[in-house]
Amino acid sequence: MLVCHCNGVSDKTVRRAVREGAQSVSEVGRACGAGTCCQGCGPTISRIIRHESHRQAKTSVTNSDASASTTS
Ligand code: FES
């Protein structure tokens, strides 16, 4: 799905930027160009950042649960 129409950036590219460390709309913009023109896609980028952060937190809890069970 195209997230940023101005720069032709897909949700997949935005997700990758977030997974690689971008934590704000401006950081995503620096990483892949999304949101750097009219900023109409800013709310969508924010939603993707929240969703990815939540997903990463869940994965990290799951991983720590797994390592806790292997160490005990
Ligand atoms: S739609 Fe993304 S900057 Fe315009």
CATH superfamily: BFD-like [2Fe-2S]-binding domain
Largest sheet: 2 strands, antiparallel
Shape descriptor reads elongated
* Helix and strand element order: EEHHH
The fold-level CATH name is Arc Repressor Mutant, subunit A
CATH top level assignment: Mainly Alpha
Care to describe what's here?
Helices cover 65% and strands 7% of the residues. The protein has 72 residues and is mainly α. Strand 1 (2-4) and strand 2 (9-10) form a beta hairpin. The longest helix is centred in the C-terminal third of the chain and has 30 residues, at 42-71. It is elongated. The relative contact order is 0.16. The structure holds FE2/S2 (inorganic) cluster.
In short:
This protein is mainly alpha-helical and 72 residues long.
Topology:
Elements: E1 2-4, E2 9-10, H1 11-19, H2 25-32, H3 42-71
Antiparallel strand pairs: 1-2
Helix pairs in contact: 1-2, 1-3
List keywords for this structure.
72 residues, mainly alpha, Arc Repressor Mutant, subunit A, two-stranded antiparallel sheet, 7% strand, elongated, binds FE2/S2 (inorganic) cluster
